[in-house]
């Protein structure tokens, strides 16, 4: 049972967990070692969560697996379409619009909100590393991710 009971968790059957674990393992092997790459003005890229920390309103902060917090392992970023989405292999079919997109030198800033959560991304085009903040009622998450150009597009 996750330590963060007030953050909703999807109920997943054993078979679904097994399929999901198999897909994640295959994606990890394909991406390993997961390193960021320069994005060189690419309009589409993939980001993978490397480290997640959650802090609750009572001041307690702790690292947590991304799956326990419903954070996709891989996230497709489409700057031209101003959207974030899960990969097809994840089976999650999640997508959200980016309401604010700005380039500041070699930094990409993305912001938006959906379902009671607000997000802000700061992505370095030079290194491919991303710092992500997600705020919700009573908790905040910080995510560090590595991004690479999307080879499928």
The backbone outline, from C-alpha atoms, is globular
Number of strands: 10
Rg is 15 Å
CATH architecture: Beta Barrel
Return the structural class: mainly beta
Q: What is the total domain count?
A: 1
Q: Which residues sit in consecutive blocks of at least 5 with pLDDT less than 50?
A: 1-12, 21-33
Mean pLDDT: 81
Order of helices and strands: HEEEEEEEEEE
What proportion of the residues is helical, as a percent range? 10-25%
First CA to last CA: what distance?
38 Å
Q: Return the CATH topology.
A: Lipocalin
Number of helices: 1
> Strand fraction band?
35-45%
Q: Name the CATH class.
A: Mainly Beta
Question: Mind describing the biggest β-sheet?
Answer: 10 strands, antiparallel
Describe this structure in a few short sentences:
About 10% of the residues lie in helices and about 45% in strands.
Structural description of this entry:
It is a single chain. By secondary structure, the protein is mainly β. The protein has a single domain (34-149), classed as Lipocalin (Beta Barrel), CATH 2.40.128. Helices cover 12% and strands 44% of the residues. The chain has 1 helix and 10 strands, in the order αββββββββββ. The protein has one helix at residues 14-31, and strands spanning 44-56, 61-63, 74-78, 83-86, 95-97, 100-104, 107-114, 117-124, 129-136, 139-149. The termini are far apart. Mean pLDDT is 81; it is low at 1-12 and 21-33.
């Amino acid at each position: 049972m996750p330590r963060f009971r007030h953050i909703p968790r999807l109920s997943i059957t054993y078979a679904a967990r097994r399929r999901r674990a198999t897909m994640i393992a295959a994606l990890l092997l394909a991406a390993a070692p997961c390193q960021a790459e320069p994005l060189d003005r690419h309009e589409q890229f993939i980001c993978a969560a490397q480290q997640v920390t959650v802090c609750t309103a009572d001041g307690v902060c702790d690292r947590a697996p991304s799956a326990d917090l419903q954070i996709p392992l891989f996230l497709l970023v489409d700057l031209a379409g101003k959207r974030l989405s899960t990969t097809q292999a994840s089976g999650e079919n999640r997508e959200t619009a980016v309401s604010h997109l700005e380039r500041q030198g070699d930094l990409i800033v993305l912001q938006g909100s959906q379902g009671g959560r607000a997000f802000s991304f700061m992505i370095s085009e030079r290194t491919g590393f991303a710092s992500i903040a997600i705020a919700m009622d009573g908790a905040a998450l910080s995510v560090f991710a590595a991004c690479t150009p999307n080879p499928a597009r």
